[in-house]
Design goal:
104 residues, alpha+beta, four-stranded mixed beta sheet, 36% helix, 40% strand, elongated
């Protein structure tokens, strides 16, 4: 399945629009990770623990998006947008949305 942020796919023609698809993932962080991230923030540098959790959430949201598009009979998703939100004090939500299409 081709998934792209663009509205067209070079070399392919969209023959059918199946509708909007969304994939979401909400991931929680634990207390130990929060403590180490706080230390990293104080001394500077990147927080590998949070970057890893963010990647997991993004992968989950994209996999869900692709699965929902396939269930609609699509073979591509165009116009994909990724949104990131903090829910509460220790939850991260990643939402991926786009338009499921059939291409040839």
């Amino acid at each position: 399945m081709i998934v792209t942020t663009t509205n067209t796919i070079e070399g392919h023609r969209i023959t059918d629009y199946k509708g909007i698809v969304v994939g979401e993932a909400i991931m929680g962080a634990n207390v130990v990770r929060d403590v180490f991230a706080s230390i990293t923030d104080i001394v500077g540098g990147r927080s590998g623990a949070y970057e890893s959790k963010l990647q997991d959430a993004r992968d989950t949201a994209m996999n869900e998006l692709e699965a929902r598009a396939a269930a609609m009979g699509a073979n591509a998703v165009v116009g994909v947008d990724l949104d990131y939100e903090v829910v509460g004090q220790s939850m991260l939500m990643v939402s991926a949305s786009g338009t499921a299409v059939v291409i040839e």
